[in-house]
Amino acid sequence: MQQRILLSAVMLLLFLALPAVRVSSRQVLSGLGSRSLIAADPVEGLHAKHHKPKFRPGPWKNAHATYYGGPDASGTNGGTCGYEDLSKHGYGVLTAALSPSLFNDGLGCGSCYEINCINDPKWCKPGQPSLFVTGTNLCPSSNDGPSADHFDLSQPAFLQIADQIAGIIPIQYRRVPCKREGGIRFTISGNPYYNKVLVWNVGGAGDVKMVKVKGSKKLGWTTMKRDWGQNWITDAMLVGESLTFRVIAGDGRSSTAWHVAPTNWQFGQTFEGKNFK
């Protein structure tokens, strides 16, 4: 009788220990690199791949808008984003200088906005479709205060939604995805010891949070430093290597232009890589 009781107790202990044995076995197999067993786990399988969604329009907010430049958008070229000739770089005349809160030390460069003139029946043009503009410059101050959201539009953009005589108008705006023709452009300037890359024509979120560069020979992935606007710099030796650029947008999505610049690239040249959809 005692032997039967002892045997039953041993069997009970073994049964209780089985979950721990299974866990230990799985940990051992994981340590041995059993990828198939781990991938079969339904919980871990949910996190096996992570794809960030496409950039979506943001919430509507209230602000004010003014205008600068001439009727042909003269006076809006150059600016603190570094795009220089806005027509040449694909931004046209529908642009805006952003207040510091939107410019965000250059992170706002290239971001796109949908704007409507509201609550001013005297100056708002009724029945006008929304205005879509790209942030290409810094508006250092506004009537709303330096921390308030404000758009200093190019004159052609302003005239699409309001009469010129208004001067300043109340608006409603929201961030929207940027639609660009072709790929992201990389214009390389500087010298072998000071490399500057202007990143432009960025789709999706439009803004750029980080840029990395990699060579085909000695240069591993190197994070570039924002010089100003969308000009990114590094003192790493890039000459003589084909270059790959990785652009990380403000929404966290990344696009890699593999070997976009050939080994014999020259300063002053522009190269085109994959864009955000």
TrEMBL record:
**Secretion signal span:** 1-25
Q: Which GO terms describe its cellular component?
A: extracellular region; membrane
Family annotation (InterPro entries): Expan_Lol_pI, Expansin, Expansin/allergen_DPBB_dom, Expansin_CBD, Expansin_CBD_sf, RlpA-like_DPBB, RlpA-like_sf
Q: Does the keyword Membrane apply?
A: yes
Pfam families with a match to the protein in the record? DPBB_1, Expansin_C
Protein name, entry field: Expansin
Claim: Lipid metabolism is one of the keywords in the record: no
